[in-house]
Design a protein that fits this description.
Elements lengths: L1 H11 L13 H8 L10 H10 L6 E2 L10 E3 L4 E6 L17 H24 L3 E6 H6 L1 H12 L3 H15 L1
Parallel strand pairs: 3-4
Antiparallel strand pairs: 1-2, 2-3
């Protein structure tokens, strides 16, 4: 994965004057480098804690080998969940572009959003149900997010009915 990210950075550098970051303070550089992509407290850890508290079981946290690296996966239900950071994925409500290297960040966030769309399409094509939550949704109304997960995991009356109908047709 590291190599892939390096390629993304190389492709995005053409948006920078002279292909290099200029006027970036060492403090800002260190801060951006320290941002983790996994296990963040405001997103994945918050959702994981809520799943445990809600006694929702049979999920895996960031399992390897599933396209797009979802944050939470319910393999038996073919459900994948992504928690998107508002900054990194360009949330329309609270995402923003930094003043420094604006062209780079605009391109980077656009690339992330495009990758999200491709990932979602591929997963759906392979039979997965995809849920996405914004970072602010977890902060604002975690209960609503959990309710959405429960609803998605629960079989609907229609799907139970059609399962029975199929079983009856198979028996004849």
């Amino acid at each position: 994965m590291g190599r892939h990210l390096g390629n993304v950075e190389k492709r995005l550098r053409h948006y920078l004057p002279g292909g290099d970051f200029k006027n970036v303070s060492p403090i800002r550089s260190r801060t951006m480098r320290a941002i983790k992509g996994r296990g963040t407290k405001t997103t994945e850890q918050r959702l994981r804690g809520a799943l445990v508290q809600a006694r929702i079981r049979d999920w895996k946290l960031q399992p390897r080998g599933i396209f797009g690296s979802p944050d939470v996966v319910f393999l038996s239900k073919n459900l994948v969940i992504f928690v998107d950071g508002c900054f990194w994925h360009g949330c329309p409500r609270c995402g923003h572009l930094p003043q420094a290297n604006r062209a780079y960040w605009k391109a980077k966030i656009a690339y992330n959003r495009q990758r999200d769309r491709i990932t979602e399409r591929e997963l759906r094509k392979n039979g997965f149900v995809v849920l996405r939550f914004w970072e602010h949704e977890l902060a604002d109304d975690l209960g609503r997010c959990i309710k959405r997960i429960r609803t998605t995991l629960s079989p609907t009356k229609r799907s139970r009915h059609s399962s029975r109908k199929r079983a009856k047709a198979d028996a004849n």
